[in-house]
């Protein structure tokens, strides 16, 4: 009868083997994915170069893709559907030699990206998917919610171009903001009547989607976070900690228009967290009031000489008007700055 293996040594061995296997399997999958994308790019190259080989070949048009799909599927199976070949061709056209696709994204990611005709928008989503390690489902959601257009709508031309080339770089409190925030994942009709507590509960129940909408770096701390001053209890709707900016982010939800006392209350919360909750290496807290509507003039006056890290942002329960946002950005990009 064999001797029993000591639990501590065996568990350590088990963990080492398990972690080695997991890391190796992930590396193998990544290597396969990298090679697959490169192969599809080369297939696209062959198709484009054949089309450019003369007038007679160019006249094949869509018929070439259809014939290739039928013949290649007979030889190699399902990977050569007509739509897949169209995207392979696009991959080569939109990532010419010297602009190779990233190894960090899968072919399914690139199919989603290739659906975007605008190179600025496509560049943003590619960079953001890499930075935030979006799954394909997360990429689809952010495209559907027009994230790039929402972030770009309030920026100047140089900032829009930077956003497209680098993604959203979070370096200061303003970089966290989106206008509007979109909560379509709650599936609450625009005419649906909900209370602030119901909205807060719904966001807490859909925390994964809410964190995706907030952006990279947020970790959830608590809901209805209680603070006590002078024997009076107050509650912050939602409290997060931002790992990149190293600070608390306090969020209050308002169903209607923000009032001046809502802003004063948030400023109170910020003061409390700065004095009572912050650790020595934490940065000053950020406060965001999310409302359905806001009076810009009231917000300007109510925040006069107040904490510069207090923001009032709008949210909506449905997807934004993509065409309207697109027009705003195109107008900004075409704008000739007066000297």
TrEMBL record:
Gene3D superfamilies: 3.40.1350.10. Residues 17-150 form the YhcG N-terminal domain. It holds the Pfam family YhcG_C. Residues 175-329 form the YhcG PDDEXK nuclease domain. GO terms for molecular function: nucleic acid binding. This is Putative nuclease YhcG. It comes from Nitrosomonas stercoris.
């Amino acid at each position: 009868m064999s001797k029993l293996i000591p639990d501590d040594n065996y568990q350590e061995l088990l963990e080492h083997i398990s972690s080695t296997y997991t890391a190796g399997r992930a590396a193998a999958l990544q290597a396969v994915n990298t090679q697959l994308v490169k192969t599809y790019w080369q297939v696209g190259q062959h198709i484009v170069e054949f089309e450019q080989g003369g007038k007679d070949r160019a006249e094949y048009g869509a018929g070439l893709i259809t014939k290739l799909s039928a013949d290649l599927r007979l030889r190699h199976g399902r990977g050569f559907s007509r739509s897949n070949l169209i995207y392979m061709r696009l991959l080569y056209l939109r990532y010419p030699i010297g602009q190779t696709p990233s190894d960090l994204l899968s072919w399914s990611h690139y199919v989603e990206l290739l659906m975007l005709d605008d190179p600025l928008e496509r560049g943003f989503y590619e960079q953001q998917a890499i930075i935030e390690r979006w799954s394909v489902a997360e990429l689809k959601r952010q495209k559907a919610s027009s994230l790039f257009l929402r972030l770009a709508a309030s920026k100047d031309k140089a900032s829009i171009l930077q956003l497209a080339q680098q993604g959203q770089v979070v370096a200061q409190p303003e970089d966290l903001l989106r206008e509007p925030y979109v909560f379509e994942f709650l599936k609450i009709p625009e005419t649906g009547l909900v209370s602030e507590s119901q909205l807060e509960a719904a966001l807490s129940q859909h925390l994964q989607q809410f964190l995706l909408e907030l952006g990279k770096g947020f970790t959830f701390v608590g809901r209805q976070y209680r603070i006590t001053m002078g024997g009076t209890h107050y509650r912050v709707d939602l409290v997060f900690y931002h790992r990149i900016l190293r600070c608390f982010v306090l969020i209050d939800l308002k169903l209607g228009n923000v009032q001046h006392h809502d802003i004063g209350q948030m400023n109170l919360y910020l003061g409390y967290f700065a004095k009572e909750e912050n650790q020595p290496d934490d940065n000053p807290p950020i406060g965001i009031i999310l409302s359905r509507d806001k009076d810009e003039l009231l917000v300007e006056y109510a925040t006069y000489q107040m904490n510069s890290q207090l923001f009032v942002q709008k949210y909506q329960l449905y997807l934004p008007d993509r065409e309207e946002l697109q027009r705003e950005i195109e107008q900004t990009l075409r704008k000739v700055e007066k000297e």
